């Protein structure tokens, strides 16, 4: 049962050989049927040429048909031969038959392009101290002084009289 292993090896070779071409189009076409799987006929350039669908990249299959290399479109997020693979923040590895980026700690995104920023919630406790003092003794002392003053004034008035 070597079928899955051969397919995985084929995809590995495809993606390793995959270098995004200077122009994203290849071959000539008149309809989508003239292009390989995961590609469509792009009518913008002249002559019309095949263009890989979004997320797929052109690669040379190594097959020559009619004197021309046969180009296919592979699903590859990253290229393990790229020295700056995964934006320099991860490693390009095979997962389920396709190349994907495994990000270093602190990075995320399809190509490890986004730094993870976290905010740690902080609980702060404000301590306030209010000096209320001893209100009752002060009021009592003031009332007592007032009482003595009045008592003294009343005694002075009685003795002078």
From TrEMBL:
PROSITE patterns: EGF_1, EGF_2, EGF_3. The lineage of its organism: Eukaryota, Metazoa, Spiralia, Lophotrochozoa, Mollusca. Disulfide bonds join 103-112. InterPro entries: EGF. This is Sushi, nidogen and EGF-like domain-containing protein 1. Residues 79-113 form the EGF-like domain. Gene3D superfamilies: Laminin (2.10.25.10). The gene is LOC111102425. It comes from the Eukaryota. Keywords: Disulfide bond, EGF-like domain, Membrane, Signal, Transmembrane, Transmembrane helix. It comes from Crassostrea virginica (Eastern oyster). It holds the Pfam family EGF_Teneurin. The chain crosses the membrane at residues 135-158. Residues 1-18 form the signal peptide.
